[in-house]
Structure formats: structure tokens, C-alpha cells
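Key result, reporting period 2: structure in, sequence out.
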């Protein structure tokens, strides 16, 4: 099956998506983040989502500031 496994892991992509989520909720009131993930991202959407959630669980991940820089 073409989409049975992660074909091309994308750690930088997982970090980028996690940072979009972090940026959407920096302080109350939190805003929801809607992220579309499909099989074409890395070959398996559920495993890509799991990797993004793992990235969100990491302490000390950088967050983009409103000024476009990195914090």
C-alpha cells in the first residue's frame, strides 16, 4: 500500500507545523489552529500527525514572535 508507512520523514516540517500551532495560542485567549495533513506530506497522515504532536510535547521548542523573529 502506497500510504501504509512514512515514506519521507520531514522533521523540519513537523517542527514548522508545531510552531504554527504554538503561534496560534501564545496567550489567552487561545485561538484554535486547524492544520490539514494528508498522505502526500510524508506518506502516512496519522503517523505525520503523531510526529507533529510529539514535536508539540517537546519542552523548549522555539516559537515565532509577532515580529517575525524567533524567540
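The corresponding designed sequence is given below.
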Amino acid at each position: 500500500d502506497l500510504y501504509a508507512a512514512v515514506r519521507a520523514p520531514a522533521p523540519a516540517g513537523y517542527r514548522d507545523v508545531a510552531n504554527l500551532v504554538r503561534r496560534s495560542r501564545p496567550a489567552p485567549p487561545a485561538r484554535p489552529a486547524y492544520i490539514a495533513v494528508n498522505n502526500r506530506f510524508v506518506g502516512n497522515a496519522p503517523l505525520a500527525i503523531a510526529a507533529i504532536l510529539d514535536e508539540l510535547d517537546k519542552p523548549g521548542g522555539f516559537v515565532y514572535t509577532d515580529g517575525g523573529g524567533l524567540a
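Residues 11-24 form the longest helix (14 residues). The radius of gyration is 13 Å. This case is discussed further under Risks and Mitigation.
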